[in-house]
Design a protein that fits this description.
Helix content is 35%, strand content 22%. By secondary structure, the chain is α/β, with parallel strands linked by helices. The protein folds into three domains: 10-34 and 323-388 and 391-520, Rossmann fold; 48-230 and 276-311, Rossmann fold; 525-663, ANL, C-terminal domain (GMP Synthetase, Chain A, domain 3), CATH 3.30.300. A hairpin with a 6-residue loop joins strand 3 and strand 4 (77-84). The radius of gyration is 25 Å and the shape is globular. The termini are far apart. Its EC number is 6.2.1.3. Catalyzes the conversion of long-chain fatty acids to their active form acyl-CoAs for both synthesis of cellular lipids, and degradation via beta-oxidation. InterPro entries: AMP-binding_CS (IPR020845), AMP-dep_synth/lig_dom (IPR000873), ANL_N_sf (IPR042099), LC-FACS_euk (IPR045311). GO terms for molecular function: ATP binding; long-chain fatty acid-CoA ligase activity. It catalyses: a long-chain fatty acid + ATP + CoA = a long-chain fatty acyl-CoA + AMP + diphosphate.
C-alpha cells in the first residue's frame, strides 16, 4: 500500500484540453457546475439589491457601518459610532428617493468620488435599489482623469466628499452631463461642512445643483419611492482601471458578475455578525468592493479608517477588527518592521523569537496546535499590533513572497489567505485554502471560475512543459466581465467568442491543482541578445531585499543588460550607515548619492536575485538611488500602487542614459 494521495484542490474537467492548451480546471468542491450565486437559503439573491434586502431583513438590529467620532475643534479621534442595518436601510431608501426625485432613474450612471466612508456605501446601496449604475472614482484622481471619466461614462451626477469638492467643482465646466453634485463629510450623515458647500455654490456652472448629503436625504424623505432594481444581467457598475499607459478603461460588471464572485470568494469563510472589517483599501478597487459585499451580506459590521494611512494602526487598535484585507505593500512593511525589531533586541530575545517561529512553523506543517507558551509570550504581542482579534487576513492585488506569507501565518495566527484576480473577473479568480499551509502559489480556482493555460510560444511556455504545464492564464465563468465601456477593440483583445478572459499572466499548475503565477505576458521587453525580460517579476524579487523599498527595472532593446532606479528603505539604510565611519553623519539624501552605498545595495540585490534563481541577464548591472518614494502624488504610481512605467522612464531618463553610458564602455 503506497503513501496517501495528496489532496486535490482543483481537478481537470473530463474531455477538455487541446493542442495548445491544458485541460480546464475547476475547484474540487464544485466540479459539476460553477457557482453563480449564494447557496440556500440565499439562492434567490441575484442582484446587489437582493443582497441588501436580504441582509437588512436578517440583520436589522446588528451594527452595520461606523466611523470614528472626531472632535471638529481639536481633531482628536474618539471611539467608533455605528448605525444598525435598519438605520442604514432607511438612509438607503431616502437616498434612493432623492435620486428618483432629482430625475436620476434606472440605467443612469452616477459617480462616487471619495475615500471609503459610510456615505459612499449608503449612496452605492441606494443606486442598487433604483437600478442606477455606479461609477467609482479614486479620491487621488486629478482633474484630467475626473473630467475624462465623467465625460466617457456620461455621468448624470457625482457624490463626493468635501475633501475633493474643490477638484470636482473645478471640473464641472468641462463635464456637461453632470447636473448634480452631492457632497458629504465622510463620517456619516451629519458630518458635512455646510459652509464649505455654501461657499462653493457661486462657482457652479449654470444648470448644476450642489447639495449636502443631509439635504439630499431630506429630499428623499419628502419623496418616498419604490425600488426599481436592475435585473441580474444589467450593469451594476463601471470600474475604470487605473491604466499604467493610455486612458483608463471602463470595466462593465453586471449584478450577476458581482454576486457570483462574492459567492465564490466566501464559499469557505465563516463570517457572521460577530465579525468586524476595517475598510481602508479603496472602494474604487474591486478587491475592497467585493470584500465589502461579502462582509455586509453576512451581517458583519464595517469600520472606516480616517483617511490617513499613518493613523491606520491607531484606527485598528480602536476598532479591533476580525477581518483585515490588505496588499503586499503593507504586509512587507509589517514584515520588515518586525524583523528589524527582532534584530535590535537582545541575543536572548532574538533566540526566543526564532525558537518560537520555528516551533509554530513545524506545528502548522504537521496540523498540530502551536505551543501555548510561545503564543502568549511572543505572538500575542504581535497580534496586539492589529487589534488582537484578527482571525481572517487576506492579501491580494499584487503577488506576495512565500517568505512573507509564511511569516503572517506564523506570527498573526488565524486564517491567512492569498487571492488572485482582476477587475475584469469581478475580483477573485483563485484563492488559497485555509487548510493548506504551503506557500508560493495562489490556490485553486474560485468556485465561480474555471481556468486553463494556453501556450505562449514566443516566451517558450507550453502545456507540454515538464514537470508542470505552463501558459497564459485564461479564465471563464459567471463573474467574467461583459466588456470595456465604449471600447469594442480592447474588449475583443481580451475576451474571446467562448467567454474566455485572457489575463495576460503566465501560470503553472502545481501538484494538488494549485495555481502559481510565474510571469507576465504584458510589460515584457527583449534585450539586444534576444532574451525576454519581465520587469515585474524581477522587481518583486528585489523587493525581498531589506535595503530596497521600491525599484524600477528597465531594459533598452539595444542593450544587453538591465539597469534600475532604486528607492532605498530609509529605516534600514540609516542604521546600517551609522556602522561605517565615513557614512555615519550623512543624511538619507546624501547616502543615496554616495558611491559606496550604491555599490553595497547593488551587490546585495544581486545576491538576492541569485538566491531567487534569476538568470544572469535578469540581474541589473547598474543602479541609481533615488531618495523620493514612487507615489500617486508624484505621478509614478496609479491609485492602486502600480508603477507607471512610461512616466518612470521619462522621469529617470537622464539617469538611465548615464548608467548605460557607464556600463557600455
Amino acid at each position: 500500500m503506497g503513501p496517501p494521495r495528496a489532496r486535490e484542490y482543483s481537478v481537470e474537467v473530463p474531455g477538455t484540453g487541446g493542442r495548445e492548451e491544458t485541460a480546464i480546471r475547476r475547484n474540487s468542491a464544485y466540479v459539476d457546475a460553477l457557482v453563480t450565486g449564494f447557496p440556500p437559503p440565499h439562492d434567490r439573491v441575484w442582484t446587489l439589491h437582493d443582497a441588501w434586502e436580504s441582509a437588512l431583513s436578517r440583520h436589522a438590529r446588528e451594527k452595520c457601518l461606523g466611523a470614528r467620532v472626531v472632535d471638529r475643534a481639536t481633531g482628536a479621534a474618539g471611539s467608533y459610532a455605528f448605525k444598525t442595518f435598519e438605520e442604514v436601510g432607511r438612509e438607503r431608501a431616502m437616498a434612493g428617493g432623492a435620486l428618483a426625485a432629482l430625475g436620476i432613474g434606472k440605467g443612469a450612471r452616477v459617480g462616487l468620488y471619495s475615500i471609503n466612508s459610510p456615505e459612499w456605501v449608503a449612496c452605492e446601496a441606494a443606486m442598487t435599489r433604483q437600478g442606477v449604475t455606479s461609477v467609482p472614482l479614486y479620491d487621488t484622481l486629478g482633474p484630467d482623469a475626473v473630467v475624462y471619466i465623467c465625460n466617457h461614462a456620461s455621468l448624470a451626477a457625482v457624490a463626493c466628499s468635501q475633501a475633493v469638492l474643490k477638484t470636482m467643482v473645478g471640473c464641472l465646466r468641462e463635464t456637461p452631463t453632470v447636473k448634480l453634485v452631492v457632497c458629504y463629510g465622510g463620517q456619516g450623515a451629519g458630518s458635512t461642512d455646510e459652509a464649505l458647500v455654501r461657499d462653493a455654490r457661486p462657482s457652479l456652472p449654470a444648470g448644476v445643483r450642489l447639495v449636502t448629503y443631509e439635504e439630499f436625504l431630506a429630499i428623499g424623505a419628502q419623496n418616498p419611492t419604490p425600488p426599481t432594481p436592475a435585473s441580474p444581467d444589467e450593469l451594476a457598475t463601471i470600474c475604470y482601471t487605473s491604466g499604467t499607459t493610455g486612458a483608463p478603461k471602463g470595466v462593465m460588471l453586471t449584478h450577476r458578475n458581482l454576486i457570483s464572485n462574492a459567492a465564490g470568494y466566501a464559499f469557505d469563510l465563516d463570517i457572521s455578525p460577530s465579525d468586524c472589517h476595517i475598510s481602508y483599501l479603496p472602494l474604487a478597487h474591486i478587491y475592497e468592493r467585493v470584500t465589502m459585499l461579502v462582509v455586509l451580506f453576512n451581517g458583519a459590521h464595517v469600520g472606516f479608517y480616517r483617511g490617513d494611512v499613518l493613523q491606520l494602526l491607531d484606527d485598528i487598535n480602536e476598532l479591533k477588527p476580525t477581518v483585515f484585507c490588505s496588499v503586499p505593500r503593507l504586509w512587507n512593511r509589517i514584515y520588515d518592521k518586525v524583523n528589524a525589531g527582532v534584530r535590535e533586541g537582545s541575543i536572548v530575545a532574538q533566540k526566543l523569537f526564532h525558537w518560537a517561529y520555528e516551533s509554530k512553523k513545524r506545528a502548522l506543517d504537521r496540523g498540530q496546535a502551536p505551543n501555548a507558551f510561545f503564543e502568549k509570550v511572543v505572538f500575542s504581542k504581535l497580534r496586539a499590533k492589529l487589534g488582537g482579534h484578527v482571525r481572517y487576513m487576506s492579501t491580494g492585488s499584487a503577488p506576495i513572497s512565500a517568505e512573507v506569507m509564511q511569516f503572517l501565518r506564523v506570527c498573526f495566527g488565524g486564517t491567512v489567505f492569498e487571492g488572485y484576480g482582476m477587475t475584469e473577473s469581478a475580483c477573485v479568480i483563485s484563492k488559497t485554502s485555509q487548510e493548506d499551509f504551503t506557500t508560493g502559489h495562489v490556490g485553486a480556482p474560485a468556485p465561480c471560475c474555471e481556468i486553463k493555460l494556453v501556450d505562449v510560444p514566443d516566451m517558450r511556455y507550453t502545456h507540454q512543459d515538464r514537470p508542470h504545464p505552463r501558459g497564459e492564464i485564461w479564465v471563464r465563468g459567471p463573474s467574467v466581465f461583459v466588456g470595456y465601456y465604449k471600447n469594442e477593440e480592447e474588449t475583443n483583445a481580451v475576451l474571446d467568442s467562448d467567454g474566455w478572459l485572457r489575463t495576460g499572466d503566465i501560470g503553472t499548475f502545481l501538484p494538488g491543482g494549485r495555481l502559481k503565477i510565474i510571469d507576465r505576458k504584458k510589460n515584457i521587453f527583449k534585450l539586444a541578445q534576444g532574451e525576454y525580460v519581465a520587469p515585474d517579476k524581477i522587481e518583486q524579487i528585489y523587493a525581498r531585499n531589506r535595503f530596497v523599498a521600491q525599484s524600477f527595472v528597465y531594459g533598452d532593446s539595444l542593450q544587453a543588460h538591465l539597469v534600475a532606479i532604486v528607492v532605498p528603505d530609509e529605516e534600514v539604510l540609516l542604521p546600517w550607515a551609522k556602522t561605517s565611519a565615513d557614512l555615519s553623519k550623512l543624511d538619507f539624501k546624501s547616502l543615496c548619492a554616495h558611491p559606496k552605498v550604491k555599490k553595497h545595495i547593488l551587490d546585495s540585490m544581486v545576491r538576492t536575485g541569485s538566491e531567487a534563481g534569476l538568470k544572469g541577464f535578469e540581474q541589473v548591472r547598474a543602479i541609481e538611488l533615488s531618495p523620493e518614494l514612487f507615489s500617486v502624488e508624484n505621478g509614478l504610481f496609479t491609485p492602486t500602487f502600480k508603477l507607471k512605467r512610461p512616466q518612470a522612464l521619462e522621469r529617470f531618463k537622464h539617469s538611465i542614459d548615464a548608467m548605460y553610458a557607464a556600463t557600455s564602455r
